[in-house]
Amino acid sequence: MNSATELSQIYLDANATTPVLPQAATAALTTMETLFGNPSSSHISGLKAKNLMEQTRVKAKQVIGADTGTVIFTSGATEGIQTAIISALVAAKTAAKTSLKQDQTYSLLYGATEHKAVPESLKHWNAILEINAEIKAIPVDHMGKLDQDFIAKEAPNALMICTMAVNNETGVYQDLTQLDSIIRQANPDIYWLVDCVQALGKTALNLANTSIDYAPFSGHKLYAPKGIGFVYIREGAPFTPIIAGGGQESGLRSGTENLPGMAAINVIFDMLLNNSQSMAKNQFADVDTLRAYQQQLVDTLKSAFPAVVFNHSFSNSVPTTINFAIEGFSSKEIMDLFDAANIRVSSGSACSSKVTRSFVLDAMGLPKWQSESAIRMSFGPAMTQTQVDEACIRIQSAANALTHSCMILDSGEISQKQPLNGLVQLRSGPNCSWIYADQHSKQAVIIDPLPELNERLDTLLQCQQLELVAVIDTHGHADHVSSRQYLADKHLPDQLSDHLGWPQNCSNVTQAGELFDYITIGNQALLKVATPGHTADSISLLLCDPLANAFDNELPNKSADDSSEAISITKSLNQQCRFAFTGDMVLMGSLGRTNFDTSCAKAMFTSLKRLHQLIGDNTLICASHDYNNEFTTSLAAETSRNALLANTLNGQLSQSQFEQLKAQLDSQLCDESGSEILCGALPANLTAKVNITEYNAESLTNALSAQQVSVIDIREPHEYALQPTSSTTENVPLTRLVQFIQQHQHQKHKPWVLVCRSGSRSMVAAQAMQRLGFDNIAHLKGGYALS
User: Is domain 286-405 in CATH 3.90.1150.10, yes or no?
Assistant: First the structure.
């Protein structure tokens, strides 16, 4: 299942970890083979081992500018942080018995952009040691600089303060000399921890000239193996061992020392100290060279992605980190794009890969979209000009590939685009926009457009050369401002419409004595149905096959009492309706809230019943929000897990009972002041995620050889273009999954295997399909990354 084109890896995620340099790896291996003695042993093998350890300690102190104080080798930065925090808090607790005021509340301070290892450790040991201090985040400005006035105000009553030398997400550095002065003027006795992990090898350190009490470091951030680090402790600073036992490290940190790790990091120290013996084969670039590399990458990003925005100032950040966002693209989309080009970057902090938003950028006050779309590109001092040049070529190639998905315009590449025919779902967070296009007529309609997707939608229309028939909202949105007017002004300047964008110049049809408006997109009809409840102006839009097959426009209007005609026509519409765009009336896993000023649970009760009559059980519902990553649903799928909806549609609930139960459901919505408004309460008793059959590379190859399964690649067209797979694989982009589901409603037993880059998208998509009745669906665990 390997892709047909395998590119060499361009690794630009050094702030997460780095490869071990060959010299460091050789030193570690040699030590394991020939210098394997225990440094605590008194024989010659032990003495040689101890000599290496002490040489490494001396070089560590030289690198960090600490001719005084103590360096203790650790397993990494997290252990160093624990060592510092426990030492400081134990000392603070001891002092509390004698010198601290018993009736005073003390605090522990940390930078708001600090790595989570610091505040989480503070919270943990503050509780364990029963210090019970108040833990406070130090604010930062828009450039990531710590609020010095806050420090001056809060430090006198604080037991400990924790700051960073260099931020891991943005590369922003703090002026340690200036901080030293402010902190010590405010409180000469406060214990001060500085996380120096990202500073090593990227900025000069002279810890002996500061009053920093503790400074942890990690080897794997600078070409040494994982599992080796060290912590600096200022002379006179309190210390409590966190690992007791055999008394190694002079009793400061017990456990047999990691000598191979020390041998490896010893080589790195030689490179940092410009020791000629180690510099012959691999010379670290100087700051000016690294800054030139950074500028070349920045210039390439600007050229490839004109909408790029940089999330930090290069004037107060190290030259090895670039944090950026591209308007209209999520961080996941850019990650997938770069991965397809074999460029490794990360979305913010790799230590919090499940977080979809950067708390660092939030603390800096950057706009929400930048925080959600942030990409971190980072490299180390071993970067070479050849690697930078190749990275820039690859970035431009990745951008060019976006023409296949019509995400950017390029007249030279536009013929390579994947034609759009059918439904596309675009998202910004949990919010959904829907585009239906008819390739034959070159017509399109956009439903519930989002402002974050303005450029994407406009580009899609231009790239596919589509005529916009209408841009419509299903209701007045409370959680965001619609971009309907922006698109209408640009593409439909002369069209007259109501406040939701429904065209005044439309056709109508009579069904069961009721007149419905509709417009056409190609040979499809989009029917407008009033469905108030979530809001007073809520409508549902039903996309149906040609109305001539479902309605007879020549029939006289039928009365509402003519039930036989109503049943006949409704059944026909059930069969003809392909998609129902219900806005926030029916959500995946819930119903839209009815506690807005213009909401009405009574009206929703009637609307739900009316919708059911029109679309039946199995028409795919396309909502305005997808809080659970389920893409689409149907009334059959929802009633199987939503008792309120089921009992409404089957007639077991009266209108008043529905109103009462709906009010209880809405009461679960929390206070949303200052946060995103949820448009529906999500019950806690949703059906658990279904179990999906998982293939690995070997079992899938065997199944394909036996022609037992069909493979669906759900990556986007630009990913597929950069890394195409075998000709037997069908590309169904995740953005077009709902269209695929609709087209294959009658093939729910067919054995399909979904595949993506890492296995995460394929798992989510497989779960969504199985919930809708596809009972032979599977996915490739680990995706192409592990195949």
Answer: yes
